[in-house]
Input
Amino acid sequence: MRPEGNLTHQNSWEVSPQSKEHDLRLILPATDAAVRRGLQTIKDGLGPKGLAPDEVASLEIVLAEILNNIVEHAYAGHPEGQIDIRLSQADDGLHCMISDRGKMMPGGEPPLGLKVDLNCDVADLPEGGFGWFLIRELAHELDYTHTDGENKLSFRMAIGQKIRT
Amino acid sequence: MKLTHQDFDDVRVVCVGENRIDAACAIQFKDEMRALSDSGPARILLDLQNVEFLDSSGLGAVVAALKAVRHGQRLELAALHPTVQRVFHLTRMDTVFTIHTSVATAVDGIANAS
Output
């Protein structure tokens, strides 16, 4: 829950050449309540940057889904786990990197998040499986790696492109 | 989870008193909605005017509430914020639910139900 300064030695975080600093960094414990507070902190932190309400909405949806998945699946039952969130505004959008040291994603790949079939009786409607669909609808250049016990998910949100021009 | 309700002739209007339905409260929401539909009339209207954010857990809980209604009972939604509307639209759940712009437009003769 504390934004930190520049991380110039973090060479794993290479976004676009123009972006040399982390606009926002947040480390959260792996609980639903911390995720809720973290999302609010991020919204407050990005608020002064002049993002449009629908841009903030897209970001909140994607971050919420990713963070919920880390709490529920990667760290399932380990609230002491830490989630590291780094957001950096570049000319082509907001670059996001989220890392944790929980379980690897099944098969070492993020789920495909296929569109769920709604042509069914109400009784058969799915109550889950929307999370990765929403992430893949709204995030660009999604990349996942699992190295030395660390999960790293990076992506770009096509938001705030006008802020730096 | 704060759910309040108000009964009219043939409809129970359930108002969510919190500003988000997310992973932290989805199960509670689902259970409380079930209790309110079990004891309610044939039409339940879920007033989401206070809900600024809903994630996939919250969406799943609203779908669960729809699946939990009795035979012949209806669950409809009203007053979705843009972000909430967006989640319903992206997942096409807006084709499954009847969605009203406000409680007042959904229920005849109610100027301000909540």
In short: Helices of chain A lie at 32-46, 53-74, 131-138.
